[in-house]
Design brief:
By secondary structure, the chain is α/β, with parallel strands linked by helices. Helices cover about 40% and strands about 25% of the residues.
Length: about 290
C-alpha cells in the first residue's frame, strides 16, 4: 500500500498548528519587503506580525513564488521520507506561476521514477484552499488512495465561494490591481469594494459606501448564493479586521440563524495585496467536516 502525503503552499492560509494536526506539509511562499528583507509566510512571519508591520510602515511586500527547483527539492525530500505518492495543492494557476513551477518539478521527478505527484490546481485563494485540503486530509485518514484524495480536494473547491471587503484601496493600487484614480475616488467617497474570487482571479463584485454597509452586503450575498444554509459551511476570514469580523459573525448568526462554522485568518499572501483590515466571507455547499 502506498504511503501518501498532502502538500499545500502558503496561499492556503493553513497555520503551522493545522498543518501538524492534519499531517500536511506546508510549502512556504516568500514575502519580499522594500528594505530587502524576506520572510517565509507562516514559518518566519505570522499573520499578526505581518499586519502590524503593514500598519506601521505602509510597505507593500511582493510575493516570491516557489521555483521549479525548489519544488523538485521538496518532492525528492518527500521520497526520502518514505512517501510513494504526494498530493500537491497550489494557488490558482490564473493568479501565479506557482502551479506551472510545480508541474515542471512533477515531470522531472516522475520521469526519474522518484515519486508519483498528484497536482491540484486550486483555482482559488486563501482559506478556501486550506479548508479543501483539510477535507482531503480527512479522507486520507480513512484510507483513501491519492487519486481519491486529489479528487475530493477538487470537489470541495468547486463548491467554494469567497468574497472580500478591503479597508483601504491603497494596497490594491500599489500592487497594480486597480487604477490610481479609482483608489483616490474610492477613498474620498469611502467606497468599500466587495471582491469575489472566481476561477482564481479577484474580480470587483460590488461596492458599498461606508463600513456599516459591508455586513448587510455579505448577508445578502450569503442568502442569494447559499440558500440552503443548513447544508453550507460558512467561514468568516479576518486579516486584522478585529471587531468587524466579530460583528459579521454575530450578524450571520442572529439575522440568518446560521452558526458560523469557522473563523480563520487571512494570511500574508492575500494580505500583501489586500492590506490590513481585509474581511472575508467564504462558504462551501456542504456541511462542515471540522
Amino acid at each position: 500500500m502506498s504511503k501518501i502525503h498532502i502538500l499545500a503552499d502558503s496561499s492556503a492560509d493553513l497555520t503551522l498548528e493545522e498543518a501538524e494536526k492534519y499531517d500536511i506539509r506546508l510549502m512556504p511562499i516568500r514575502l519580499s519587503f522594500s528594505d530587502g528583507s524576506e520572510f517565509r509566510a507562516e514559518e518566519e512571519i505570522k499573520a499578526d506580525e505581518f499586519y502590524k508591520r503593514l500598519r506601521e510602515t505602509g510597505d507593500v511586500p511582493k510575493t516570491v513564488q516557489i521555483t521549479p527547483a525548489e519544488f523538485e527539492e521538496i518532492f525528492r525530500d518527500e521520497a526520502k521520507n518514505g512517501y510513494d505518492e504526494i498530493v500537491v495543492v497550489t494557488i490558482a494557476s490564473t493568479a501565479s506561476g506557482t502551479y506551472q513551477s510545480a508541474a515542471l518539478a512533477k515531470q522531472a521527478v516522475e520521469d526519474e521514477g522518484v515519486i508519483k505527484v498528484h497536482l491540484v490546481d486550486s483555482m482559488h485563494l486563501a482559506f478556501g484552499i486550506g479548508y479543501a485540503v483539510i477535507c482531503g486530509a480527512h479522507l486520507l485518514q480513512k484510507g483513501a488512495d491519492a487519486s481519491a484524495v486529489a479528487a475530493r480536494i477538487s470537489e470541495v473547491l468547486s463548491k467554494t465561494q469567497t468574497y472580500f471587503a478591503v479597508e483601504t484601496l491603497d494596497y490594491l493600487k500599489k500592487g497594480g490591481r486597480i487604477k490610481t484614480t479609482t483608489a483616490i475616488i474610492g477613498g474620498m467617497l469611502d467606497i468599500r469594494p466587495i471582491l469575489h474570487v472566481k476561477d482564481g482571479v479577484v474580480y470587483a463584485y460590488d461596492k458599498v459606501r461606508g463600513e456599516k454597509k459591508v455586513n448587510p452586503k455579505f448577508l445578502s450575498i450569503l442568502k442569494e448564493q447559499a440558500p440552503d444554509l443548513d447544508n453550507t459551511t460558512v467561514m468568516v476570514l479576518s486579516g486584522d479586521a478585529g471587531e468587524h469580523a466579530e460583528n459579521l459573525i454575530q450578524s450571520i448568526e442572529t439575522e440568518l440563524g446560521k452558526k458560523v462554522d469557522i473563523k480563520h485568518v487571512v494570511g500574508p499572501i492575500i494580505g500583501s495585496h489586500a492590506g490590513p483590515g481585509v474581511l472575508g466571507l467564504c462558504f462551501v455547499g456542504e456541511k462542515s467536516e471540522l
